[in-house]
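Example for tutorial group B:
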């Protein structure tokens, strides 16, 4: 049965033909390998998470103490596909890193709000309560994830990006397990929790949407650079468990899938508005020092302005983000982005300098967001289920 969240199918078929009917079943498909691994880890009780941590740290996935289901999961998830090119992966990550602050703003004010816009895809977050109750930490962990997969060598065997991606995939399986055991989950309306359709959409948010956001900020990312970035996220999506039929291999494929998802997706709901509100109010909820508390209201207004400038007035109105003079801040940042981008392209040294500067920016963002604590990617308590 196709869930009711999949709307406007007649109009979508007029644009995309039978692709509509080929996409719809993915709302009912999940990630069996990760689900089986989580079942095995859950059987270990409180020691399951420590087992995962030690296994990822050691890299010895075939140790006899490791549950067979986890061994199978890790072996398949870390299998390197024939199409993967490591130099292209490394170059793809530098596309984001060299943009520094602009990349962080795109993530927080464009990619994440577009993800929350889905009235079906946002339900696992809404049930977990992680964003509304722990918004600063979750934003910091998301930033760390993006930073880690973008760093040179981050997705290679033993790299932080690879390990974090695996932990996030298993965390999603844990959330899915909890939701499937709950009588609150509405399969007829939303499909399976954290399904393949929504997993693919998330990959697009971190790949194509980031590229489009950076271009809005004035960065001239050419076709070759963009395809390298897409290659990186094709691999991240693959490690994340997205079905090979759905992982975009290029900007062209990503745009077509993104538009099909947009056309068959209903408007933002109350959960969308609550999640976006928690996101833009992160400067306020995360403020600790007197100086942070003093500047937090202004930074929250800037965040609202950026969401409106990047997501557009129609969607922003549906989020409950009204008109504000702060949306004009995009023009100032765009000017700075163009200057920075052109300066970084004057020489290989300029490009490397921009990458190093961007790496320092992401390190500071993560440091401030986590308040010196570890980034664990532990399964949330799911108190609202």
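The residue assignment follows.
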């Amino acid at each position: 049965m196709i869930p009711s969240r999949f709307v406007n199918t007649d109009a979508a078929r007029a644009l995309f033909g039978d692709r509509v009917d080929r996409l719809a079943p993915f709302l009912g498909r999940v990630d069996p390998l990760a689900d089986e691994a989580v079942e095995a880890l859950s059987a270990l009780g409180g020691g399951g998470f420590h087992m995962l941590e030690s296994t990822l740290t050691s890299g010895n996935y075939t140790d006899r103490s490791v549950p067979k289901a986890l061994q199978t999961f890790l072996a398949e998830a870390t299998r390197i596909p024939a199409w993967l090119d490591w130099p292209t992966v490394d170059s793809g990550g530098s596309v984001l890193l060299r943009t520094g602050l602009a990349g962080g703003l795109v993530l927080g004010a464009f990619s994440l709000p577009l993800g929350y816009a889905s009235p079906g895809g946002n339900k696992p977050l809404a049930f977990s309560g992680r964003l509304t109750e722990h918004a600063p930490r979750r934003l910091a962990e998301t930033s760390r994830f993006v930073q880690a997969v973008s760093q040179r060598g981050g997705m290679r065997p033993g790299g932080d990006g690879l390990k974090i991606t695996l932990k996030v995939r298993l965390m999603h399986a844990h959330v899915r397990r909890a939701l499937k055991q709950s009588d609150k989950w509405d399969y007829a309306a939303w499909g399976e929790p954290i399904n393949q359709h929504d997993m693919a959409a998330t990959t697009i948010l971190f790949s194509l949407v980031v590229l489009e956001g950076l271009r809005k900020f004035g960065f001239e990312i050419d076709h070759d650079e963009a395809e390298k970035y897409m290659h990186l996220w094709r691999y991240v999506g693959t490690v994340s468990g997205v079905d090979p039929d759905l992982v975009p291999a290029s900007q062209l494929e990503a745009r077509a899938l993104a538009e099909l998802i947009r056309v068959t997706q209903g408007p933002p709901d109350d959960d969308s508005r609550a999640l976006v509100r928690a996101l833009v109010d992160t400067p306020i909820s995360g403020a600790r020092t007197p100086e942070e508390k003093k500047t937090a209201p202004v930074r929250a207004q800037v965040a609202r302005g950026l969401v409106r400038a990047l997501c557009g007035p129609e969607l922003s109105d549906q989020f409950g983000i009204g008109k504000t003079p702060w949306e004009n801040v995009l023009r100032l940042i765009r000017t700075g982005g163009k200057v920075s981008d052109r300066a970084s392209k004057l020489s290989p040294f300029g490009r490397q300098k921009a990458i190093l500067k961007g790496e320092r920016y992401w390190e500071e963002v993560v440091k401030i967001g986590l308040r010196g604590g570890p980034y664990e990617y532990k399964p949330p308590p799911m108190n609202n289920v």
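The chain has a mean pLDDT of 91. Compare this with the pattern of hydrophobic and polar residues in the output above.
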